[in-house]
Structures are given as C-alpha cells and as structure tokens.
Amino acid sequence: MQTNSHQHFFNRSLTKNEIDYKSVYTSCFPMIRSMVFKNSGTVDDARDIFQDTILVLFQNSTNDKFELNVGTCTYLYSIARNKWLKHIRDHGRITGLDGTEEQADEKSFVDDDEQKQRQRLLIKHLGSMGEKCQNIIKLYFEGMPGEQISSELGYSSYEYYRVAKNRCIENLKKLIQSDPVFKELI
Hints:
Blueprint: H1 4-9, E1 14-15, H2 21-38, H3 43-61, E2 67-68, H4 72-91, E3 93-95, E4 101-103, H5 106-127, H6 131-141, H7 146-152, H8 158-177, H9 180-185
Antiparallel strand pairs: 1-2, 3-4
Helix pairs in contact: 2-3, 2-4, 3-4, 6-8, 7-8
C-alpha cells in the first residue's frame, strides 16, 4: 500500500518550494493521459499537453505569492482539460482509432467531462460530511422512499427525517459551491 505522504502532498496547499515534479508526473499524468485518450488523443498528445501543463505550474510557482489551494492533480487536470479543448478548437478535426478523420465534437466532450467533474465534487464533499448525513443522502439518491429511510435510520418521525435530509443537502450544496473546481465549472 502506498504511503499517505503522497496522498497528503496532493491534497493540501503547496508553496513553490514544495512541488516535487517527479511525484506530480507519476501521480497526475495517468489521469491526464486518460482524459486525452478518451477524447481521441494519442500518447504524444497527452505528453505534449502534460508538458505544457507542467510549464504553467512551474511558471505560476515562480511567483512568490503562489499557493496551490486545491489538489495538485485537480489543478493540473483543469489546465490540461482547457489546453486539450483549445487543441480541439484549433485543429477542428481529430483522427479516429481507425485512422480516419472525424469532426471533433467539443460539446459532447465538455458535457461528459463536466459531468465527471461534478460527480467527483459530489463524492469528495459527501465523504467529508458526517456519517448520518452520508447515509441519508446516499439512500435518498438511490431512490429509497423517505418513509423507509426514516425508519431504517431510526428517526422518530418522517418529518424529522425530512428536516435532517434538507439540512444535509443544503450543507452539501454549500460545500460544493465553495469549492474552486465548482467555480470553474460555472
């Protein structure tokens, strides 16, 4: 099992002197490569995009006021995603797996990618909530009827469950809306 130091490194604020580029590459490149592959890119495209992304990180980190307040991979993924979208816009056509050219469908790429980003945000912030709220929201999203959730989780009445559910959902919304990644999606 990997040590938590890598995990901690990528989930906390960083200053320019703390960036370990080798760890950044081994931890973040596979995610960016996967994004490029899923959108008709090649290994070379992924390497180029990642290299450009690392340059942005390096340039930003030379600023004394630079502080990375989101996960390093999340930051790099956002930059890479924007660079890949620009590449698609600039070239207009992409080569399919069979070697034929096809029109790049940027809208479906953006919609799919934004949906995945929203899901990541939901999972991230749901995991940071208390166990009771996690259970309520998970069962609610699974479509379980409120009366059943109320009795399964031991609430004295359905109305008390509804109040608790609404508070949990409001707290989850606030957490998500305060996330910098959410602000990029708007």
